[in-house]
Amino acid sequence: xxxxxxxxxxxxxxxxxxxxxxxxxxxxxxxxxxxxxxxxxxxxxxxxxxxxxxxxxxxxxxxxxxxxxxxxxxxxxxxxxxxxxxxxxxxxxxxxxxxxxxxxxxxxxxxxxxxxxxxxxxxxxxxxxxxxxxxxxxxxxxxxxxxxxxxxxxxxxxxxxxxxxxxxxxxxxxxxxxxxxxxxxxxxxxxxxxxxxxxxxxxxxxxxxxxxxxxxxxxxxxxxxxxxxxxxxxxxxxxxxxxx
Length: 244
Description:
It is built from nine helices and five strands, in the order βααααβαααββααβ. With 244 residues, it is mostly helical. Helix 7 crosses helix 9.
């Protein structure tokens, strides 16, 4: 087999009841297909990951075992991994909360070569929609429905944790600062700022590996500095594991 050709398993469109869980290949293609990982791909933001170490660190942040992360980075093209990471980050940002773990879906998507549904911005369908008002309206409705679903899912999680909109807004600002400083990780979408005062901030998550990564001294210091920039005061930062 030509080593430049990869077998792609097509993932079904996002299902309303569980968006990312539905991204599982149902059957093998009869012929091998080249996967599009070029810079025109709507999922490709390869510049976010400048080297193998950054890919490895992001996989670890999301809960992937260190041996598995090492194998993925060494056995799969960096662009392929970046495509999946950016797609997952987009969905987590929209509010998707994994039933089991983002790590399990992430590993399967990379190993099995999931053919991801194109993102609602800059897809081939949108290019065609420029010539079709009806198709453009259908795409926009689909995008709004997906966004609304993820938003409601995230809002339900915030309510479950007792987090106010004001506190969550602080967390969103913190993540914005971390992005600007190039210190952001998709794992931050798996955590929430539960409470914040003039003295202390408490971050919660329900995945043990993510908790361990965010609790690292260097990572805590980075978050502490971002909180200082947003709040204007220095606070101590604690990461707590919930629901385990």
